[in-house]
């Protein structure tokens, strides 16, 4: 069964055109001109129950607009939209019983009262029974370690503490779908890891469907098997993250640190017959660029038997770099042809080990 079914979804906004100068400002007072801007352009996708899907894009790509339509906050201009069997903007009261929403830059907790009081108010909003509320609250508080925070006003919480409380607030009524819009924005690495582990456990144990928008690609790598990439309101990629990395990965680099000094001729000779490119870091350190279709073991077997090696490091394609190249090309279907790379470009390779930071922006 599908948790989310979107077909040809479109959202347009009227934007006022401001004329220049004093005369233009006076004209705007009496007769305003508007233009139609499409924030989301006829997108289609389906998310089955129990999937964790990443929804990424640059600033203004339309991510948050999509989430607001999926949660019933905005009414689509056109298209079909079914979430949990409901049309969000039509069946609002029934629909919200089955979804949870966390907006990283907006709070659903009351600022000046204790956290537990916000939870009790939300219990009444969602019409959760006392028994279910106590059982659910105890489970979430223990899992997210919030025992010491329940009687503290929200305004006195750190950002990480508040985000953990926001997750509890979104899950008190046990929704089957969780929408997360930048849930880890501004958090330190320890809190991010705690939230990621919690979300994985929630999905694994309760089958909760999660749609995650973020500009931290490390969230995507840690949680999602599938990613939907949005650019200028249109979907340019919908598929597996590993498939995307395989298709766009520019190869790998292996750094060898030798016991004795080596020359460029020495290391090149060791891999003669292989389509690889060497560069020297210093007299005892050299890097070899290996195309993505070649197995690293082919290179290692040739080098290890001929020279004494004190250290080896393997560098993978950075996910941020892949996403950046896709946006620059405007398509996820046409990766750059590595055979056309110049020697200098190939030797440059990827200079950082695999790690994703803040590559794609928010909408």
From TrEMBL:
Name all ABC transporter domain ranges.
Answer: 24-257
Entries under SUPFAM superfamilies matching the protein: P-loop containing nucleoside triphosphate hydrolases (SSF52540)
Renumbered to this chain, the signal peptide range is: none
For molecular function, the Gene Ontology terms on record are: ATP binding
Q: Which InterPro entries match?
A: AAA+_ATPase, ABC_transporter-like_ATP-bd, ABC_transporter_ATP-binding, P-loop_NTPase
Q: Name one Pfam family in it.
A: ABC_tran
- Which protein is depicted? ABC transporter ATP-binding protein
Q: Which UniProt keywords apply?
A: ATP-binding, Nucleotide-binding, Transport
Q: Which PANTHER family match?
A: ABC TRANSPORTER ATP-BINDING PROTEIN, ABC-TRANSPORT PROTEIN, ATP-BINDING COMPONENT
Which species expresses this protein natively? Cohnella silvisoli
